[in-house]
Amino acid sequence: MSTPAIDGRRVHVLLVSLIILVALIVNQSAVHWRADTADSHLFAYYGWCVAHRAVPYVDIWDNKPPGIFWVNAVGTTLCGPGTCADVAVGAVGLAVALVAFAGIVRTAYHRALTVLCVAFGAVLLTQVYFHCGANRTETWAVACEAMAMVAYLRWQRAGGIWWLLCAGIAAGAAPCFKQSGVAASVAITMHLLGTQILHAVRRGAWWKPWLAWIVGGLTVPLVALLVLAAQGAASDAYFACVQFNRIYFEADHSSWVQVERALREYLPKLRSLGGVLLLTGFALVLMLVAYVRGRQRGVRGRAGPLLFLLWGALGFCAALVSPGRLAYHLMPVLTPVALLALYPLHYLVARHGLVRALTARPAILVVVLVYVSFWTSPLLQQMAEVRRCWSHKSAWYACDPSISTDAQGLAAYIRGSVSSDGRVYIWGWNPAEYRACERLPASRHATLEKLVTLGEHAAFLLERVHDDLRSMPAEVIVLDPMTAQQWLDSPSTEFEQWVSEHYTLRVEGIYGLLVRADVATSVGG
Q1: What is the C-alpha to C-alpha distance for residues 126 and 200, in angstroms, rounded to an integer?
Q2: Which residue intervals of 4-82 are DSSP H helices?
Q3: What are the tens digits of pLDDT across the range 347-399?
Q4: Secondary structure of the chain: what % helix, strand, coil (to 5)?
Q5: How far apart are CA 132 and CA 148, in angstroms?
Q6: CB-based burial label for 73 (10 Å; 0-12, 13-18, 19+)
Q7: Is residue 430 within 8 Å of residue 230, measured between CB atoms?
Q8: Per-residue model confidence as pLDDT tens digits over 468-478
Q9: CA 385 → CA 90, 158, 276, 505, distances in Å?
Q10: Which is it for strands 423-426 and 476-479: parallel, antiparallel or unpaired?
């Protein structure tokens, strides 16, 4: 009786799926419990507000594009307002990025390397240190850019104008999550233009790829614009997402020319990727060698490596210009860096495949071991970050709330005291408390961190908060007890005088609650 043949393709799919699943479980069990999750709480809270019919930029305000609010609104609607929604939003975005990464390496590199490349890539694309998989704009921008790249490579390899249309749709979706999420689309545009120029595309055919690419790229932004316009938020969205960000340049938090300052701040964050970056440099040398040999033999090389180089360079330039220079700003660069670092493996086995190459040249095994060693540092960093996050939970698999006990107590008090349609205002930068309270903010500028960051350049935000609170007074204003008492006893501004006339003070733990006088009895004042 003959033994059934093993389907190698199914085995590859199974192994790749297993790697992605394990990477997702490890990442999602940790990344939402980092110490610095305030931005994630803000996006989740704004998603909750949108799910309760708040209009982005009119009822809630941030300088991020609307995609992250809408995604969180869907997550909150499906999973409720708790941590499970964070996990759902982060897991879906990261899963899309990992599946697209697998598709890229299968299309651009030798198929026998797919499992190995996905294993190496999963180490980088799930880095908790860089907030990969968190409820952040970058997570979804990375997913969209990766989808755009795999669709474009499929079009390059197999044709089919629908692939290019899909690439445009995914590329157009990326800046709807993060304004700087254009590295992949610019790289693809440059490559498409260069390909047509160098290979003399027939006159009657040159416009068809551009039509598919442009139509696809405009689809998602136009739909988003139409939705915002229908809600009366188009002009407010333009100010928040475009005009406001110019203030970062005025305040010298961003710069087109002073990149050396950003480099100094980013280099320590890249230390764990030293070995991977060394492989990336080696890949550039091999790309040059492959290009020269291809020219000599009249052979056209694959599109992938050059695209990855353009993608990574443009993404890193965007990170250099971005304000803050925090670790998660480098998240969009990790995908092209991983793909470039894997090119030397493809270069070694492109002709024969991994098994035949190892049989013909056993020394290649040494190269594979070197690869493993270069990936050791990011792997160790990953496990250290994961263990640190797990230490904050009752169990590694638990979905405990990732906010402090004091904040949970404040939230319970407000939920029990403020009517469901009542509004609150929490002074300063406290998105976790807002989220736990499950009440709409009394001002669309619910947080004031940009005032702290940009100083007088953003002073108009405080004026808007004052105006909002006077026109639609919050039932409770939360701030520190000392400041609250000072406002009531010796007001120094017109707004503080207004507060002293309309609010009374109640202290709950570390918080001072300014309770509106006409509802003080109902909230235990």
Answers
A1: 41
A2: 8-28, 38-51, 67-79
A3: 877 665 666 666 666 667 777 788 888 889 999 999 999 999 999 898 999 99
A4: 70, 5, 25
A5: 19
A6: buried
A7: no
A8: 999 999 999 99
A9: 17, 41, 19, 41
A10: parallel
